[in-house]
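Our consortium's second objective concerns turning raw sequence data into structural hypotheses that experimental partners can test. To show how far this objective has progressed, the report includes one record in full. It was chosen at random from the queue rather than selected for favorable results. The single chain below, 374 residues long, was entered without modification.
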Amino acid sequence: MKVRAAVLEAMGAAHPYAESRPLKIEELDLDPPGPGEILVRIKAAGLCHSDLSVINGDRPRPMPMALGHEAAGIVEELGAGVTDLNVGDHVVLVFVPSCGHCMPCAEGRPALCEPGAAANGAGTLLHGVRRLKRNGQAINHHLGCSAFATHATVSRNSAIRIDPELPLTEAALFGCAVLTGVGAVVNTAQVRAGSTVAVVGLGGVGLASVLGAVAAGARQVIAADLSDDKLALAKSLGATHVFNAGAADAAEAIRQASHGGVDFAIEMAGSTRAFDLAYKITRRGGTTVTAGLPPPNATWPMPPVNLVAEERTIKGSYIGTCVPLRDLPRYIELYRGGRLPVNKLMTGTLALDDINRGFDLLHEGKAVRQVIVL
């Protein structure tokens, strides 16, 4: 079938994207779903820094690639062997398909699925195929989804069925921002009621972490970012203290406010400077969690002495250490119960043809979560 999709030909385009137009809206050929796959009509797709990091070259991927990984839609066709979904089901896409058989999957850690990671790096679906073509040329898939498009053929393991009463524009956010941000708090850090938490970096994922810390019952939720507007939003979402991360005394000010440092510092900015701040504001015996994705060549000089002498813990978090089939419905129920107001992260909707302008706003820090409505 013919679909319209946002295709990236090459990384590293100049700003502003509205002028350089790195993403071209093109008509592509989409193959029907093969065994273990489904066809989804995309209804909403969020603009995320993980997409932006491919556009600017921070996360190298094979080109050309149809971007988009945070989305929700409606199942239109089932491939052979798919018996647990029906045409018409509403689904949220998950950007790491889990095979269910590798060692991480067997250990209950589907976010670390080895075949899923290999497929994502190669630009294919879970089983190594590409279903998008342009004049016979294969187009790579972004994280098994390629969701900036009218339709997507994906692995069955890339989709979670949801309640059809949830608006799909809101449901899309759960596939990345919420799974990653809330999951980093409740799964990776395992924040307990009464803990102190700091979140460094207040994009969509970081602000979802603020929501997660509030929902988990943290007695102190500290938010740090370079944007005063985002700090104000964090405050409205339940942060007890906010600090501009660019201030020369930011680390000391946060340590004073938290009486020596926080139990859990969560870095969501994807920069070593932000991670360094998160490490500095973690108390003795505390845990620093990072879910930010800096460029692959970025390094951070770790001070081993206080890592040992203060019994610190550093943990990475990918998709919030989530089990999507378990966690996504839980987070949706928290949202519907008013305890996880994810809708407040949305800063606007836009059409597919306006996608480059949307990424300008994201790059400039003027948007949290914009959603393309199809």
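The partners drew two points from this record. The chain is about 30% helix and 25% strand. The first strand starts at residue 2 and ends at 8. Both points have been shared with the crystallography group to help prioritize constructs.
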